[in-house]
Amino acid sequence: MSVMYAIAGAATAGLLVAHPAVAQAPQIPAARPAPLAQAAYALQYDGHLVVRPDRTAVDTFTRRITILAPSAIQTVSQQQLAFVEDRETLEIVEAFTEKANGSKVPVPAANILTRDAASGLPATFMRDLKQETIIFPDVQVGDTLVMTLVKKTQQGLFPGQFFYTDIFPRSLPYSSARVTVDAPTDLELKVRTVGTDLTDQIDEIGAIRRHTVTLRPQSYLPEEVRAVAQIDRDPALLVSTFTSYKEMGLAYAAAALPKAARTPEIVTLADAITEGIDDRRKQAVAIDAWMKKNIRYVAVLLGLSRVVPNDATTVLRNKYGDCKDKATLMSALLAAKGIASEQVLINFGPAYTLPEPPNMAVLNHVILYLPEFDVYDDPTASFASFGTLAVETYDKPIVRIGPDGAILTRTPAMRPQDHTASAKTTLRIAADGKVTGQTEESNTGVFGTALRSAVANIQNLGSDAAARRLLQVFNTPGSGSHDFGNTAENAAPVTMTGSFALNQPFKPPAGQRAAISFGMPQTARPGNFLLGTRLAGRNTAFTCYAGRQTEDIEATFDPALPMPVPLAPRDIENPAFNFHATFKVEGRTLKVHREFVSRVAAQVCPPDLEGRIAADMDAVRINVISGYVFQQAAPETLERARTVASDQKLRLDFLYTLNPDCTSMGFATVRILERPQHGTITVENGNGYTGFPQNNPRYECNKSQSEGVVLNYEPEAGFVGTDSINIDAIYPSGSSQKRHYAIHVGELDAPPTLERARAVASDQRLRLDFLFDLNPDCTSMGSATVHVTEPPKHGRITVENGTGFPTFPQNNQRFACNKSRSDGVVIVYEPEAGFVGTDSVNLDAIYPQGTAQKRHYTIEVK
Description:
By secondary structure, the protein is mainly beta. The protein has 10 helices and 48 strands. Helix content is 13%, strand content 39%.
């Protein structure tokens, strides 16, 4: 089961459209290790690889696939195996369906098909790549599909060298696997297992060294979205005669570099491309642009068939080529201008390691390095600016080949400032609800590549049809057109504009919530793509990219329409990304700004990062797709009366919005419409106790502190009198409220007097009262301020902080607080010596939360 690992990444396609399927993708269930019994089939593999002294080989292997569920019948009952005809043969020794009772149903000769493995233009490069298809008959649950094949390697990909790779992915339900490797002891053959769950027993049998590699039973683990390549994470067996990747690079160089000869035809073309350009970097930019515009790319992965490119002149005449062909022609054109270049072997896919021993398991692509400018460039990336790579090829281990030999290094990691996407959408909503607008985009780096690719798709489909389809995907049907800006140029930033008119009128009733169109951007909205699709319970490392995405939306509403209530600003910062969002109304225009910056230092992120950013990423998603509450008229003003002692600070109010589970929905936005004339007000995020009524489902939330906005008032020094404040509070739920606070400082406007009668024995002290103010959890809010307005005539009174037992009625949620002492203010009366008769006391009590009370005590001294 020799595997030539090669995956052409398709991540760039994820940049093209920010449709709801991407922007609002639900979480995928956790991909946790599962018993083999939960898989639809079980796989057994037994292979025997014999490597001969001349470095040819015979690989004999048997696969047994047991059907465990009906779904597997369609999946595995037809098997395909590829081979390269001019250097390999593939013989099917036997193939049959083994029934549950032990009988065998052979695969008839008519069910074994041989055909070209490539079609279309790639077949021009891979005429020798063939595929055997085996169609098993009479397959039912409980049957086992058995096939034994012999693959003979008559010549390696590199003459005189041999390498072989077997990967045992955990996403394939292996019940057992064993590979035996035999080779002469005097053959310098390196055999190594990577990953876990593989054992290698080495035996010397005469002149043969035998490696018996066995796969231990392992849990089945389905593939995870955006996971790194299997060879980076799963058990694998690697066999090679190469001593190093440098040696492999030199072998490639010996075959490939001579093909980049500077012929007179090449020199003439290079001069024509760079005519009038003296700057050497600009000459390289011009050659890169010419290559991408004039030489079509045929996507043939290096190693599937051959490693020797066509010569530069042939590629020029054909006007097409695969990666190594395009690299060869561009090298020749650069050399014609005296600009040195080096060819680079790299992986185009999610593999981020070079496993030892050296092999072509991951090196499937060729790009260029220009040492004079320290720039990597991919001439196959037809929509990329000079020096911008395909997103799959950043932060990759590479073999770089130049005139001085081969070296191992890495391509640069992505930087946020190099890969930016900026979309500004301007909307106009008329009195009849008609929505028109435009979206202007300006992108750099891989986002610029994506924007040019989107333009190519639009041109293929037609501008009008493409606009209709995109708006339909966004669930905002309408019509539109495009101005392609500078997308035809090899420049950065890449710019384009889309204009649109929506079919459905936008007229949300006052008090209702509705989403506002974000236009028709071609690239993903903030928070999408860079850090991949969310996956709870992730088990494997995943690909992640650095970049910056900004979105600005300006929606102007006709005066006849209700206005949206802006959301609270949002700021998120964690080790992987920053997110910043602001919302404001200026006149009749809502202005929204969002910015998402992924700051990952490498393009492979550990699986535990998923859990660490999941909540923050969900908050970003909710913010991006949020709707708005629309209000026609100013809300009714809520009146609040507060009292504060002179020279004291008052906690004026605590504003909150909670979910039914008592979690905060976020912080209210407070606008001060009228500031106090005799004091100061501060607004800050903090904690406090809520005051939901008993019939509210959030009543239980009152028992603990919640997040919210705290308003504090502090009067001017020495001021006594009346002050006032007006505010506008806009809540995360989308509602808003105006509040007016009437504040009495240091004196009361004669609130109702509370009468209290007390009795005390002559010559005894009386604990006249205990004043308290408690939170729902029985903690004290602070001490009341007590002013004795009329002292007793026949005794004296003291006021001091102390403790006592509160006396809440049974229907009060603080009733349980009565069982223990609390902090408060203790008021004590002591009559004159020998006095018997009636005395009285008047006082004002101002409580920490801003309420006040007059109290009159009638005291009978007996």
